[in-house]
Specification:
Radius of gyration: 28 Å
Number of helices: 3
CATH architecture of one domain: 2-Layer Sandwich
Oligomer: single chain
Strand order of the largest sheet: 4-3-2-5-6
Length: about 140
């Protein structure tokens, strides 16, 4: 009795070839999953924003987004920058649109001094509209923490 063959021939050894079709199917499915999820993982700076019960602010005509991670890293539109580069970029933004709004997203573990340095650089450059971005508080809590 031989396994893997329907015809009876002179060779009675079992078939030892590996069927590659299931392996290729699994690999293609994994490739599609990675193609779909890769852009979702690379687009944001990971922050733990404070939760506050407040209404969302209206969108300004021109805005800059600064993110500050808990380790003190500063990002301008998802690109890492230093405080000196921020000063230059703030001045450029004010030169283009005088009413540019700065939106600061800071992790809850960021020292206040780091946020104050960013705000001071913005005010020195002429940005007067500065907003702090938070997450909405849970609807069940009833009071702001």
């Amino acid at each position: 009795m031989s396994f893997g063959r329907f015809e009876r021939g002179t060779d009675e050894s079992p078939m030892s070839d590996i069927n590659m079709t299931p392996l290729i199917d699994v690999m293609l499915v994994l490739l599609v999953i990675f193609i779909i999820t890769a852009p979702l993982l690379a687009g944001r700076v990971a922050l733990n924003l404070p939760k506050v019960a407040a209404l969302p602010a209206p969108k300004p005509t021109s805005s800059l987004a600064v993110s500050i991670q808990k380790n003190g890293r500063i990002y301008l539109d998802d690109h890492p920058v230093t405080i000196n580069v921020l000063r230059v970029r703030f001045a450029q933004a004010v030169a283009v649109h005088a009413d540019t709004e700065l939106r600061i997203r800071a992790d809850t573990a960021v020292p206040y001094g780091t946020v104050a340095r960013v705000m001071g650089a913005a005010q020195q450059a002429g940005l007067s509209h500065i907003g702090l971005i938070t997450q909405p508080a849970a609807a069940t809590s009833g009071a702001a923490p």
